[in-house]
Write a structure and sequence with these properties.
InterPro entries: Diguanylate_Cyclase, GGDEF_dom, Nucleotide_cyclase, Rev_trsase/Diguanyl_cyclase. This is GGDEF domain-containing protein. Pfam families: GGDEF (PF00990). Keywords: Membrane, Transmembrane, Transmembrane helix. The protein has 2 domains: about 200 residues, no CATH class; about 160 residues, Reverse transcriptase/Diguanylate cyclase domain (Alpha-Beta Plaits). Helices cover about 60% and strands about 10% of the residues. The protein is built from 13 helices and 7 strands. The strands form 2 sheets. Strands 2-3-1-6-7 form a 5-stranded mixed sheet, sandwiched between helices. A two-stranded antiparallel ribbon has the order 4-5. Strand 6, helix 13 and strand 7 form a beta-alpha-beta unit. Helix 1 packs parallel to helix 3. The N and C termini lie far apart (about 100 Å). About 35% of the residues are buried.
Length: about 400
């Protein structure tokens, strides 16, 4: 049977709700912007208060704190950002389960009673942090994997910097819990670093949004160039090889003319999805503009084997695009666009050029060769011919 809830625990719950609400109100403007620009993974930094509740309070009271804070988050942040209610309810449930898991770790040592006096208490807090983030990430990741077609590991589990942010927030939550037991007013000191974290994460997300093409979700041309130049410098240092593919959607103007530009945007998004599905997660995929795309593949084998691998990737992309059936909305109703095709040109570094511009120029010439040869074909720049050694008697 669960222990009865004490008056001091109710007071602690009240402090956590109070400071959690203050935190939400102060950060509301930032969080609304973050919520609009966030991708699949989203951390709202309220874990400071929910984790503190998990390690300080009985599970039922901790669940009440979480429900109060997430109800306020829904009213002030999620609903204005037009997030579906069911997603918010699911998120709240995952946080409650993560809090229960964290409480199960600290409960055997009698909970948190101020600053840790021994290694066992500190170890229990560290384990509670890890278990909290693991349970939360696993539950959210399972939901994404089941509902998002073609989701990548980074989408399912969150990127490393997102998870690092959550760990940092939970560490602040552990400090807040210890401060709350010592003197409730000490947790005022948690608010300034929290707001700095909010702003730092907002800046990063705005940078990511600026680097992402709005129609396809791929890198913009400028962002792709920046990343590709970095990969070439790395390849130069390691004496490795990278490759570039330039891809042009055939007869795309006919799609726009016949079905409208909104339908064309849906086709571009479908082609972008096909590109991402056929390359590795660390390959750089960008939209150059219009119906033209570009892919950089790092860490390729040198010489012939690298060209063979590049050709195989390009052929897989070409075949996948040719199999696309894209349902678009037109003024006459839904229509399925079929018969899409893409022409592909490729080149490698350092064989085809010593700079990114040179490799792109060679890949572009190969693309035009593919267009001249009837479209819907792949053309990889031929390996440079090495002059034969002169015979000694010549």
């Amino acid at each position: 049977m669960a222990d009865p809830i004490t008056g001091s625990q109710v007071v602690i719950a009240g402090w956590l709700v109070l400071f959690g609400l203050i935190h939400i109100e102060v950060a509301t403007g930032i969080e609304r912007v973050r919520r609009r620009v966030a991708g699949t993974s989203y951390f709202d930094l309220s874990s400071v208060w929910t984790f503190a509740a998990a390690v300080l309070l009985p599970p039922v009271l901790a669940a009440g704190v979480i429900a109060a804070l997430y109800l306020h988050l829904w009213i002030r942040v999620w609903r204005p950002a037009r997030v579906p209610l069911y997603r918010h309810v699911f998120t709240t449930a995952t946080v409650v389960l993560a809090a229960y898991a964290a409480h199960a770790v600290v409960s055997p040592i009698g909970g948190v009673h101020g600053w840790p006096q021994d290694a066992s208490t500190l170890g229990a807090l560290a384990l509670a942090v890890l278990l909290y983030v693991t349970v939360n990430t696993a539950l959210v990741g399972c939901a994404i994997a089941l509902t998002a077609t073609g989701a990548r590991p980074g989408d399912v589990l969150g990127h490393w910097d997102d998870n690092a942010l959550e760990l940092a927030t939970l560490c602040l939550g552990a400090l807040a819990a210890m401060a709350l037991v010592a003197n409730p007013w000490l947790i005022v000191l948690v608010l300034p670093p929290l707001l700095v974290l909010h702003r730092a994460v907002l800046v990063r997300q705005l940078e990511e949004a600026a680097n992402t093409d709005g129609k396809t979700g791929l890198l913009t041309a400028a962002a792709w160039h920046h990343g590709a130049a970095r990969e070439l410098r790395r390849a130069q240092r390691s004496r490795g090889a990278v490759a570039v593919l330039i891809l042009d959607l055939d007869h795309f103007k006919a799609v726009n003319d016949e079905h409208g530009h909104l339908a064309g945007d849906e086709v571009l998004a479908a082609v972008a999805g096909a590109l991402r599905a056929e390359v590795r997660e660390n390959d750089l995929v960008g939209r150059f503009g219009g119906e033209e795309f570009v892919v950089l593949l790092p860490d390729l084998p040198l010489e012939r084997s690298g060209r063979s691998e590049l050709h195989a990737v390009a052929e897989r992309i070409r075949h996948r695009v040719s199999m696309l059936d894209v349902t678009v909305c037109t003024p006459e109703g839904e229509y399925t666009v079929t018969g899409l095709s893409i022409s592909v040109g490729g080149a490698t570094f350092p064989s085809d050029g010593g700079t990114l511009e040179q490799v792109l120029a060679v890949a572009d010439r190969a693309l035009y060769a593919a267009k001249r040869d009837g479209r819907n074909v792949v053309r990889i720049a031929p390996a440079p011919q090495v002059p034969a050694a002169r015979s000694a008697t010549a």
